[in-house]
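Moderator note: this is an archived Q&A kept for reference. The question asked for a predicted structure of one protein chain; the sequence and the answer are reproduced below.
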Amino acid sequence: MMPSLPDLSQIPPIDQRGVEERAARIQTRSLKGEGKLAALKLAVSMLDITTLEGADSPGKVRQMCMNAMRPDVRAPEIGPAAAVCVYPSMVSVARKLIDKHASTVKVASVATAFPSGQAPLALRIEDTKFAVEAGADEIDMVISRGKFLSGKFEEVFEEIVQIKEACGDAHLKVILETGELQTFDNIRIASELAMGAGADFIKTSTGKVGVNATLPNTLVMLQAIRDYYRRTGRMVGMKPAGGISKAKLALQYLIMVREILGKEWLSSDWFRFGASSLTTDLLMQLRKQSTGNYQSNCYFSKD
């Protein structure tokens, strides 16, 4: 059965002050001891390690894949990461290496004219199909923010439906680009549209704009996932992306997920970090937990 446009009139207005106050309270929370160690290891396993630059090369992608499979070569019990994320042209490079090592790391690819989404729908569909045929397990698409902000919600919904169909068996992550949506109410509406259209994950950002993932924006999206699950019984994943570079902040995101969605979502099947720069700080914090001493970040790969 084809998805149908959600009844947007039933979406409750967002209490902006309440969201910001709750996010601020979460920032005061922390984990200690064994709980912190377990959470740091969990965060590493939730990383989508990414390279999305014009200068990407097969060699750079292969090195990134090796880092994802073994984040810390001196600590094989840490990792692997959840996925590597590349442009469609590099999917086959990543797929070949991941398969060679029989790794559980997924191959994700941005598609649909990332990061702007400013291309005809037919080209965005072909972009998606190309990535899937090259071996992508997951597709990260961007919504048409211009259409959304113009109130063309049905067009945005239908585009997501068609991209989801083009994904075949690959999972679809729908990027809302929350930094451009202007209000919490818009973030909530976009979340509902994406989930109703079949998104397997909803994702905050491309990492290519001034404002990326924030605790308040993510909180709104997590609440949308919770309410959608209560209505439909279908779990949808969450991926904050961009601007998360410190382990302390990553753990606050995990605390928020646990409080709003429950422990079932504390798995790479349902929660990811789109933040390659986070990897080094997580590994440094894990080394501190294990040895009692910090180690220079020069001992960890930054690729």
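Archived answer notes: The chain has eleven helices and seven strands.
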